[in-house]
C-alpha cells in the first residue's frame, strides 16, 4: 500500500465547539446563546420559523440536548487526557461568547467565564496540546439576536470588538491559532446559526443577508488587526464550509450553473477575507438582486489591510448541481442541496461521501489563494453500537477517515500547503443540524442518548487506537 509523507510538525488533532460539548448552559453566569434555544430533533433549524417562536427555552414543548451536552464543562480534564493519549498536537474548540459577555453588550466581562477557559488552556498545555480557538461558532448571544437582529445591526460589530479585545488580552500568552467565524459562508444556507436571524421575507434573503455579511467582514478585519497588534506570533484564519460543486453532466449550462453556485457559496467569503476585496462576480449579483450595502468610510481599507493568515475549512461532502433540478433528483438530507450524485454513496444522514472531493477541494482552494490550508472539520456522523464485550467497532469511520487522509496525502504531493487536520467531533457531541447525540463522530464514545439518558461515561472506540497510530507515524500508517 502506498504511504504518504506529511510535513514535519503537521497539526494532527480533533475539533469541537463549546455549544456542542460544554453543557453547563447556565453555570458560571453564562448567558443564553442561539444554540441554547434551539431544541433537539430533525426540525431544529426550522423551529424559528414556527409562529410565536421567541428565542426562549420552552421545556414543556421541547428537549435541549446541548444544555448538558457531554458535560465537558466539568469533565474537561478527563477528555483532554484522552486526547493526549491519542497524541493530539492541537485541539480545536470555541469560546462561548456568552460565557464572557452573557448578554453580548455588557461593558464588563464575566470573570467566571474567562477563568473557565484559562483552566482549559492550562490543562491542554499540561498535556502538550496547543489550542486552536474559534472566536464565534454558532453561539451568538440571544440578547443580540432579539434586540439587534443579529449581524443585521452594525452595533454588533462594536460588541464583537469588545469580546475579541477581551479574549485576546486574556489569552494572548496561551493561544497561537485563532479563527474568526465558523463556516462564515453557511449563513447563505442556514442563516440563524451564523448571522443571527431567520430569513422570513424576500428582502432578508438578499439585502439583510449581505449587509450582515459586510458587518462580519468588518468584524473579521478588526479581529485580524487586533491579533497582529496584540499577538504578533499568533496566526489567525477564516473558516469556510467548503463543498466542491460538480456539474451533473457536461452541458455548458450545467457547468456554468455549478460554477456560479460554487463561486457564491465556496468563494464569496474567502475572496473577501483572503484577498481583501469584494469579488467582481458578487458585484454583478448585488446589482441583479438590488442589494445596496451600507459601507462606512474606512471599511474597505480595513478589510483590504487585514486579510487572514490561513484558510480553515470544513469538508464533509461534495454537491452536484443541475439547472433544472426536480424534487425527485434531490437527495434526502444533503444539507447543502443539489441532486443525487450516482457515483457516490451517502451517510445515514444522506451526506454524500466523497474523499476524492477533498483532494479537489484542497487543490481548488490552494490554486486560488496560495496561502496555507487547515482542515478543521471532517468526519462521518454514524450510529455506533456498544458490543456486549464493551467494544465499539467503528470500522466504517476508520475507512472514511483513512480515505480522506489519503486524499490529503495526494494533495500534498500535488503541492498543496496543508497545516493540519482536526476531524470533527473527536469525542461524541450534540449534532448541530439535528441536535441528536445518536449522530456520532467521535473516536471517544460518550454514553448519552437522544432522550438525555446515559451515564456520560467515556469509552474508546476502535478508531481511537487507529487514529493514535496515524498520529504516532505522522500519517505513515493508515
Ligand atoms: C459543521 C459545523 O457544519 O458541521 C459543526 O461547524 C457541526 O458545528 C458539523 O456539528 C457536523 O454537522 P452535524 O449537523 O452533523 O452536527
UniProtKB/TrEMBL annotation:
Active site (UniProt): 377 (nucleophile)
Enzyme class: hydrolase
Pfam families from the UniProt entry: Glyco_hydro_1
Protein's UniProt keywords contain Hydrolase: yes
The keyword Hydrolase is assigned to this record: yes
UniProt EC number: 3.2.1.86
Regions that span the bilayer: none
Keyword field: Glycosidase, Hydrolase
Family membership noted in the UniProt record: Belongs to the glycosyl hydrolase 1 family.
PANTHER family: 6-PHOSPHO-BETA-GLUCOSIDASE ASCB-RELATED (PTHR10353:SF122), GLYCOSYL HYDROLASE (PTHR10353)
Protein name: 6-phospho-beta-glucosidase
Species for this entry: Niallia oryzisoli
Gene that produces this protein: ascB
Amino acid at each position: 500500500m502506498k504511504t504518504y509523507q506529511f510535513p514535519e510538525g503537521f497539526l494532527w488533532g480533533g475539533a469541537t465547539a463549546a455549544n456542542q460539548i460544554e453543557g453547563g448552559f447556565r453555570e458560571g453566569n453564562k448567558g443564553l446563546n442561539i444554540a441554547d434555544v434551539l431544541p433537539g430533533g430533525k426540525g431544529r433549524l426550522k423551529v424559528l420559523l414556527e409562529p410565536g417562536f421567541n428565542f426562549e427555552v420552552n421545556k414543556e414543548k421541547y428537549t435541549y440536548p446541548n444544555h448538558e451536552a457531554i458535560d465537558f464543562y466539568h469533565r474537561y480534564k478527563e477528555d483532554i487526557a484522552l486526547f493526549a493519549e491519542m497524541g493530539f498536537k492541537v485541539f480545536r474548540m470555541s469560546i462561548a461568547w456568552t460565557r464572557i459577555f452573557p448578554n453580548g453588550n455588557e461593558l464588563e466581562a464575566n470573570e467566571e467565564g474567562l477563568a473557565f477557559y484559562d483552566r482549559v488552556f492550562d490543562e491542554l498545555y499540561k498535556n502538550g496540546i496547543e489550542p486552536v480557538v474559534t472566536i464565534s461558532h454558532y453561539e451568538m448571544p440571544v440578547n443580540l439576536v432579539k434586540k439587534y437582529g443579529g449581524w443585521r445591526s452594525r452595533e454588533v460589530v462594536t460588541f464583537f470588538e469588545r469580546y475579541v479585545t477581551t479574549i485576546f488580552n486574556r489569552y494572548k500568552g496561551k493561544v497561537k491559532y485563532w479563527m474568526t467565524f465558523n463556516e462564515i459562508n453557511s449563513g447563505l444556507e442556514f442563516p440563524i446559526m451564523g448571522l443571527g436571524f431567520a430569513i422570513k421575507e424576500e428582502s432578508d434573503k438578499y439585502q439583510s443577508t449581505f449587509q450582515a455579511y459586510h458587518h462580519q467582514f468588518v468584524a473579521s478585519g478588526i479581529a485580524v488587526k487586533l491579533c497582529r497588534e496584540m499577538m504578533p506570533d499568533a496566526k489567525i484564519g477564516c473558516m469556510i464550509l467548503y463543498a466542491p460543486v460538480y456539474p451533473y453532466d457536461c452541458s455548458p449550462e450545467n457547468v456554468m450553473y455549478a460554477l456560479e453556485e460554487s463561486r457564491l457559496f465556496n468563494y464569496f467569503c474567502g475572496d473577501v477575507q483572503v484577498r481583501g476585496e469584494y469579488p467582481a462576480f458578487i458585484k454583478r449579483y448585488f446589482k441583479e438582486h438590488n442589494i445596496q450595502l451600507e459601507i462606512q468610510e474606512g471599511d474597505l481599507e480595513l478589510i483590504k489591510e487585514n486579510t487572514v493568515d490561513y484558510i480553515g475549512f470544513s469538508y464533509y461532502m461534495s454537491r452536484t448541481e443541475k439547472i433544472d433540478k426536480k424534487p425527485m433528483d434531490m437527495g434526502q438530507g444533503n444539507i447543502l442541496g443539489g441532486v443525487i450524485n450516482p457515483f457516490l454513496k451517502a451517510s445515514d444522514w444522506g451526506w454524500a461521501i466523497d474523499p476524492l472531493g477533498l483532494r479537489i477541494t484542497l487543490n481548488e482552494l490552494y490554486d486560488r489563494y496560495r496561502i496555507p490550508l487547515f482542515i478543521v472539520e471532517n468526519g462521518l456522523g454514524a450510529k455506533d453500537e456498544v458490543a456486549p464485550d464493551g467494544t465499539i467497532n467503528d470500522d466504517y469511520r476508520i475507512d472514511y477517515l483513512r480515505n480522506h487522509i489519503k486524499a490529503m496525502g495526494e494533495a500534498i504531493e500535488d503541492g498543496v500547503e496543508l497545516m493540519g487536520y482536526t476531524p470533527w467531533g473527536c469525542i461524541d457531541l450534540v449534532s448541530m443540524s439535528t441536535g441528536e447525540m445518536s449522530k456520532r463522530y467521535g473516536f471517544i464514545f460518550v454514553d448519552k442518548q437522544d432522550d438525555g439518558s446515559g451515564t456520560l461515561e467515556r469509552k474508546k472506540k476502535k478508531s481511537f487506537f487507529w487514529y493514535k497510530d496515524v498520529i504516532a507515524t505522522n500519517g505513515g500508517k493508515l
